[in-house]
Design goal:
Layout lengths: L9 H17 L10 H7 L10 H18 L7 H14 L11 H14 L3 H4 L4 H14 L6 H17 L5 H9 L5 H4 L1 H18 L4 H8 L12 H11 L12 H5 L3 H14 L1
Helix pairs in contact: 1-3, 3-4, 3-5, 4-7, 5-8, 7-9, 7-11, 8-11, 13-15
Length: 277
């Protein structure tokens, strides 16, 4: 394998990255990673990981996905480099939107690799809520009926992995996830709606302890800044239809509306409970 350096011209760089990608893809987790440590380090150099050419970026992404697979459960990078790596992944995964896309084959390789190895476990331990929010938003934005079930399955696996591993799911991520359950997104993006239900169905157990504060700010303290606050009853109905376990600690919050003096809130809460039970 030849050296990878930002000083290389695009064609030479692509040629060397293709050779590295071929070698890495054939290695398994029992392989001697010392043989590729120098190349792994080269991939995160400024000018390589930040290269502007889309083909270079995709090849770098394929190589990085395999590097993280080979070194798992550890990573050969510091936190700052890892943040850059995950930001690159999110950018590249947009390529799985259409199978006719010239970027599709490599983008799907990255998607499947990250899902299989559960690479985003590393991201769950880092302070990058914006990257995780962008990832969820991307998956729901590009989900469509022309994609294969394998693509959808990988998307769901990655999102569930993150929800399982994060000690606390940021409200902004919940906004993205929950927003796909109600209109207009529910009717305009039916595939995203189904994906969101699949994710929540699998993550119900872990989420039930995490979303109390999210809904408490809507139903208790009434100081929520979520764009979904005005649709809280519609959202609760959808979540209950997926798995009532999700709302185990949330339903008691409705007592405030049921016993309060606000007629509209009391009416909505009563109607919601009648529909749910």
């Amino acid at each position: 394998l030849q050296e990878i350096t930002p000083k290389l011209g695009k064609e030479d760089l692509i040629k060397r990255l293709k050779a590295l990608a071929a070698v890495l893809s054939e290695m398994d987790q029992d392989s001697d990673t010392k043989t590729v440590e120098a190349h792994a380090a080269a991939l995160v150099q400024p000018g390589i990981i930040t290269h502007r050419d889309k083909d270079v970026k995709l090849l770098v992404g394929c190589c990085l996905a395999d590097v993280l697979r080979l070194f798992a459960p550890e990573a050969p990078y510091g936190e700052d480099d890892l943040k850059t790596v995950f930001r690159l992944f999110v950018t590249l995964l947009a390529g799985v939107e259409k199978a006719s896309n010239s970027q599709y084959e490599r983008a799907f390789y990255i998607l499947e690799n990250l899902a299989t190895v559960k690479t985003f476990v590393l991201a769950a331990d880092m302070d990058i809520p914006d990257v995780i929010q962008d990832l969820f938003d991307l998956f729901f934005s590009i989900a469509n009926a022309d994609q294969s079930q394998k693509v959808h399955g990988c998307m769901v696996d990655i999102m569930v992995c993150l929800l399982d591993e994060m000690s606390s799911t940021p409200d902004e991520v919940l906004d993205v996830l929950f927003g796909r359950l109600i209109t207009p997104s529910k009717t305009e993006k039916p595939v995203a709606y189904k994906l969101a239900r699949s994710v929540l169905g699998r993550a119900a157990g872990v989420l039930q302890g995490q979303i109390f504060s999210y809904f408490n700010s809507m139903l208790g303290s009434r100081d929520s800044e979520s764009p979904l606050a005005a649709r809280v009853y519609d959202l609760l109905y959808e979540l209950n239809s997926i798995d009532a376990l999700i709302l185990l600690h949330v339903i008691p919050l409705l007592e405030h509306d049921l016993t309060g003096e606000a007629t509209e809130a009391r009416s909505k809460a009563t109607l919601l409970l009648a529909k749910m039970f």
